[in-house]
Design brief:
- Two copies of one chain form a homodimer.
- The first copy, chain A, has 428 residues and is α/β, with parallel strands linked by helices.
- The first copy, chain A, folds into three domains: 7-139 and 304-324, NAD(P)-binding Rossmann-like Domain (Rossmann fold, 3-Layer(aba) Sandwich), CATH 3.40.50.720; 146-301, Dihydrodipicolinate Reductase, domain 2, CATH 3.30.360.10; 345-425, Alpha-Beta Plaits (2-Layer Sandwich).
- The first copy, chain A, is 38% helix and 27% strand.
- Chain A has 15 helices and 18 strands.
- The first copy, chain A, has helices at 16-27, 29-36, 67-72, 87-96, 106-123, 131-134, 140-146, 161-173, 177-186, 195-198, 201-215, 234-242, 304-324, 361-371, 400-412, and strands spanning 7-12, 40-46, 63-64, 76-79, 100-103, 127-128, 152-158, 225-226, 245-256, 259-270, 282-289, 293-300, 338-340, 346-356, 376-384, 388-395, 398-399, 416-425.
- The radius of gyration of chain A is 24 Å and the shape is elongated.
- Chains A, B: GO terms for molecular function: homoserine dehydrogenase activity; NADP binding.
- Chains A, B: L-homoserine binds at residue 191.
- Chains A, B: Residues 350-427 form the ACT domain.
C-alpha cells in the first residue's frame, strides 16, 4: 500500500450492520481520515444478490457478488455477513493475502476462533473482533490490553440481550416465559425463531470468545456447557425476588485449579450485584482480576448502530496500524489451559423441593447433601399446608458434580415429592 | 534498543503503587515477557530518600536518588511519584530522550496534559495513562480506540471513591457529612486532610483528562467548573431518596452547540440509572456516544493493586510497541473545541424552597421560573405546617445560567423564607 494513499476497505455483507458501516464511512469520512492518518476508501461491498433492494445510502456501484475478487483488492476486510461459510474461507483468504481483518461474527469465532487467530499471527496481520462479543461494549481491548499486566480469574457476562429482556419482563410484570418471548418478538428484540437465543447458543459462542480472550487459551463453543432459559418459570423469578435475587442468563468463564470451566446457564444473582441492575436488552460483562479486582463493562449488545460503532473502532485501529506501522496483540494461546467439564466448576445451588410436612424430613434432606460433601448455607420453608411443604435450600460453594448428584438423590428420597427447581447462585 | 534484549524499565516513585508495580514486575516476569515478546528489566527506582524503610520486595540495590540519570538509561519510564514537579520535568526529559512513558499522575495530566501529549507526539513515543483517570478501570483504550469510529456526546463519571463512599454512607445510614468523612478516614478511604476529595479537586483533574480524551480537545483543570460535596446535608440525601434519586458527585463533560462544558458537582441521579448503584469506594464512568449509545465502565478507582494493574497493562502495551514496532494513538487536539463556562451547560435543577403557606404563593414562585424562560416539570409540597411550606421544584432542561439566575431571584421574593437546597439532576 502506498503510505500516502487511502486505505482500501472491503465490506463483506450489507445487512443492518453493513449498511450502517457503509453510511458512517461515507458521512464521517473527514473525521475518520484524521483519526487514521489517511482516507478510508470503501472499494466494494460483497453481497449475495446485487439486485436486492438496499438502503439509498448504499452506493450500488460498489456492490459485487464476487467476494473472493473483492478481498484481493483490499487492505482491510470487514466481515459482517455472519454464519460459518463462506465467511471463514473469505477471512482466511484475506489474512493469507496480507489484509487486516475486522469481524463481528460471533458464531464463526466461537466455533473456530483459534484457527483464525493463528492464521493472523502467522501472516503478521491484525484480526479485530470487538463487535463479536458484546456489541458496542468495548471489551476486547480492555481485556487483552489494559489487563495485560494482570490475571483474570473469572468472567461473568450477560451477553444475550434477548434473553435478558425476556427475564427482565418476567421479573417486572410476572409474565410467563412464552408471553415474554412473544413480547420480545413483537418489539424486534427476538427473532421469529428464538432458538439461538433462548437455548443459549448465542451466549455460548460469546462465552467461548470471552474465555479465549481472558485466559489466553483455546476455547471452542463445543467446550461450553450450555443450558438455555426454557426451564425458567414465572414462579422461579418471583421466588428469586423474595430471596433478594434476580434470574439472569450468565456466561461464566473461570479458572479452576489447573484449567478453566466455561458455562452458560440461568443463575440467581443477588440484587446488590452490579449485574443485577442490567435491564432490558442491555449487556454487561463483569470481570474479576487478581490486581484490578472487580470490573464491569456495560452497554448495548446488539443493534445496527451500536455494532457498527464497534466495527468502525476496529477499522480505525487496524487502518492506523497500516498507515503508521505496528500491530495489535495476538490472541495467543500460550497458556494452553485444559478446558474442564462443568462437573469441575465450583458454584452454589438453590434447590427448591416439595416434601412431606412432618418431623424428621429436614434431617433426611440435609443428610443427602452431607452425603455428597455439600455444605448447606440456609434452609427456608417457603410454603406449607400441613400435608406438604416447600423447602428452599441454598448451599455453600461445592463441585458442580457433587451438587448435581445431590439433586439426583434428593429426587429419589421417599419424603421428597418433587424437586421443583434447581438454579445456580453466582456473584454472591 | 537491541530487539532481542530486555526492555529497560525505570520506576519513578516507590510508594504504595510503585512498590506493587515493582513486586509484579518481579513475580510475574515470565508471563509479562511472554506478553511483551521480551523480558522487562527493572533498571532502577528513583526515590527521594534511598535510606527510608521499604517493603522487603523492593531490591534496595535498584534505589537511586538520581532520577535524571535513571531516566536516561530506560526504554520505558513509569511515573508513580505524583505531584507536578519534578514529575513534569522528568517525563518531558524521558520523552525528549526517546523513552516511552507511563504515568498515573492525574494532577499533572489534569493541569498540563496537552503539553505532555504534544511532546510525546513530536517525539514519536507512547504516552499511556490508564491509571490516571479511574484507577483500574480500563477507560483510556475504550474511549480513544474502541470509540475511534464514533462520536462521544457526553461523559458522566463517579471518579472519586472517597466522596462516593461518604455520600453512600449518608444515604444508607443517614449520617451527616462530617460523620461520614470521619468514618472514611478511619477506614483509610479518606486522607487526614480530605480537602482534595471533598472539595472536588481530584474529580476536576480527572474530568479534564476525560474531556480531553473524549472530545479530542484541550481541557485543563482550570477550565472545569468545580463544586465539592461540603454543602450536601443528610436531609438532601434523605429527600433525594424520597423522590427516587441518589446524590452523587459527578464529573460531567458534554458537547454543547459549538464546544464543550466540563463540570464537577453533586447531582441527583435517578435510582434506575446504572450510576446510581455504584456503591462505596467504587468508580464508574458512563459514556454516551452517537452510534454506540450508552456505555458504562465500572471498577476500583484507587488502591495500590488496582492502580498497579492499570500501570502494568500500559507498560506491556508500550513495551510491545518497542519490541514489535507500532505506537498507540495520540491525544490529538484536532477538534480544538471551545471550553465554555458552566453557564452554558444544559441541565435540570431541583430547588427546595421554604415559603409562606398561603394562596398565591405557588403562582409567584412559578412566575420567577417563567421569567427566566425555565420550564417547571413538577412541583411537590414536601412539608407544610399552616404557617410555612417547603416546595420541591424540578425543572425541565435549561441553560445553567438561567437556572442560577432563577435561584437568585427566588431568594429575593418576599414570600420565600429560604432556598433550602439547589441540586442539578443528571442522567434522567
Amino acid at each position: 500500500m502506498d503510505a500516502s494513499g487511502p486505505v482500501r476497505v472491503a465490506l463483506l455483507g450489507c445487512g443492518v450492520v453493513g449498511t450502517e458501516v457503509a453510511r458512517l464511512l461515507l458521512t464521517d469520512a473527514t473525521e475518520l481520515a484524521a483519526r487514521v492518518g489517511a482516507p478510508l476508501e470503501l472499494v466494494g461491498i460483497a453481497v449475495r444478490d446485487v439486485a436486492a433492494p438496499r438502503d439509498p445510502v448504499v452506493d450500488r456501484a460498489l456492490l459485487t457478488s464476487d467476494a473472493e475478487g473483492l478481498v484481493r483488492r483490499a487492505d482491510v476486510v470487514v466481515e459482517v455477513m455472519g454464519g460459518i461459510e463462506p465467511a471463514r474461507s473469505l477471512l482466511l483468504a484475506a489474512i493469507e493475502g496480507g489484509a487486516s481483518v475486522v469481524t463481528a461474527n460471533k458464531a464463526l469465532l466461537g466455533q473456530d476462533g483459534p484457527t483464525l487467530y493463528a492464521a493472523a499471527d502467522d501472516a503478521g496481520v491484525d484480526l479485530y473482533f470487538e463487535a463479536a462479543v458484546a456489541g458496542a461494549i468495548p471489551l476486547v481491548r480492555p481485556v487483552r490490553e489494559s489487563l495485560a499486566g494482570d490475571r483474570v480469574t473469572r468472567v461473568l457476562g450477560i451477553v444475550n440481550g434477548t434473553t435478558n429482556f425476556v427475564l427482565d419482563r418476567m421479573a417486572t410484570d410476572g409474565l410467563e416465559l412464552d408471553q415474554a418471548v412473544k413480547e420480545a418478538q413483537a418489539l424486534g428484540y427476538a427473532e421469529a425463531d428464538p432458538t439461538a437465543d433462548v437455548e443459549g447458543h448465542d451466549a455460548a459462542a460469546k462465552a467461548a470468545i470471552l474465555a479465549s480472550l481472558a485466559f489466553h487459551t483455546r476455547v471452542s463453543v463445543d467446550d461450553v456447557h450450555r443450558e438455555g432459559i426454557l426451564a425458567v418459570t414465572a414462579q422461579d423469578v418471583a421466588l428469586a425476588a423474595e430471596t433478594g435475587h434476580v434470574v439472569k442468563l450468565l456466561a461464566v468463564a473461570e479458572r479452576v485449579a489447573d484449567g478453566v470451566v466455561v458455562r452458560v446457564h440461568p443463575a440467581l444473582v443477588p440484587t446488590g450485584h452490579p449485574l443485577a441492575s442490567v435491564r432490558g436488552a442491555f449487556n454487561a460483562v463483569f470481570v474479576e482480576a487478581e490486581s484490578a479486582g472487580e470490573l464491569m463493562f456495560y452497554g448495548r449488545g446488539a443493534g445496527g448502530a451500536p455494532t457498527a460503532s464497534a466495527v468502525l473502532g476496529d477499522v480505525v485501529t487496524v487502518a492506523r496500524h497500516r498507515v503508521l506501522g505496528g500491530k495489535g496483540p495476538v490472541e495467543s494461546s500460550h497458556a494452553a489451559l485444559t478446558v474442564h467439564p462443568v462437573a469441575e466448576a465450583l458454584t452454589r445451588y438453590q434447590v427448591q423441593v416439595r416434601v412431606d410436612d412432618r418431623p424428621g424430613v429436614l434431617a433426611q434432606v440435609a443428610s443427602v447433601f452431607a452425603g455428597h460433601g455439600v455444605s448447606i448455607e440456609t434452609v427456608r420453608q417457603a410454603r406449607a399446608d400441613g400435608d406438604q411443604a416447600d423447602l428452599l435450600v441454598v448451599t455453600h460453594t461445592a463441585r458442580d458434580a457433587d451438587l448435581a448428584a445431590t439433586v439426583v438423590d434428593l429426587a429419589e428420597l421417599p419424603v421428597v415429592r418433587a424437586v421443583l427447581s434447581v438454579l445456580r447462585v453466582e456473584g454472591a
